[in-house]
Specification:
This protein has 207 residues and is mostly helical. Helices cover 79% and strands 0% of the residues. The protein has helices at 17-44, 47-68, 74-103, 111-132, 140-169, 173-204. The structure holds zinc ion. The site of zinc ion has 6 residues, from α2 and α5.
Length: 207
């Protein structure tokens, strides 16, 4: 999930080849999990899985963009951050809308698929956390990628708990509540990123 993470790494300025390679591995993990979770989310009828899938998509794009703008001038990185912030806001609004829509229907998500894929996502994020572990004391931006994967792992635990709740209650509510929380976090993070990007844009413009 995205509590002040997933995109606040616009100031990343190069670091080592080893870090770039690690970032590429983490991008591959996130991209694979996006495809896995979007299919599973639709199959299971789970809003929480779909929200988590979008988080993986956002992280894949965010880390890819970070990799692409390494070493570029601040104004370019600030604009990239603004794009990230706006797409995160769109994602948050979509999850909110789609969750509300599903709250009106009576279908119950498939708890077994939710739990199994939620667990797979947890393993994927823990693998990213381990890959990034030695960079966690790096600069603010390097650290933010690590923090992001760690926070996402906490989000995966919420999805697994939602799956247990759906299984126990045979209702969609635990799924919808977790999806709503994830949408709120998307919107909150997008505000932080947009605010930071605007500050950096002002900073980059000559007085
Ligand atoms: Zn994330």
């Amino acid at each position: 999930m995205v509590a002040g993470c997933c995109g606040n790494d616009t100031k990343f300025d190069g670091a080592s080849l080893a870090f770039k390679r690690t970032l590429i591995a983490v991008i591959a993990i996130n991209g694979t999990m996006f495809i896995t979770e979007i299919i599973a989310g639709i199959a299971a009828g789970s809003q929480a899985l779909l929200a988590d899938a979008l988080d993986f998509l956002g992280d894949t794009a965010t880390y890819g963009l970070s990799l692409a703008v390494i070493g570029m001038p601040l104004i370019v990185r600030a604009r990239a951050a603004l794009i990230k912030g706006i797409s995160l806001a769109v994602m948050g609004l979509w999850v909110f809308g789609s969750t509300l829509y599903h709250a009106l229907s009576t279908s119950t998500p498939q708890a077994e698929i939710m739990g199994a894929v939620g667990f797979l996502a947890l393993v994927a994020n823990l693998a990213s956390v381990l890959l990034l572990l030695k960079y966690r004391d790096g600069d603010a931006n390097v650290r933010s990628v690590w923090l992001c994967s760690r926070n996402d792992a906490i989000g995966n635990v919420a999805v697994i708990l939602a799956a247990s709740g759906v299984w126990a209650s045979q209702t969609a509510w635990p799924d919808l509540v977790v999806a709503g929380l994830m949408a709120s976090l998307f919107l909150w993070s997008s505000l932080q990123i947009i605010r930071q990007a605007r500050a950096e844009t002002l900073q980059a413009q000559p007085a």
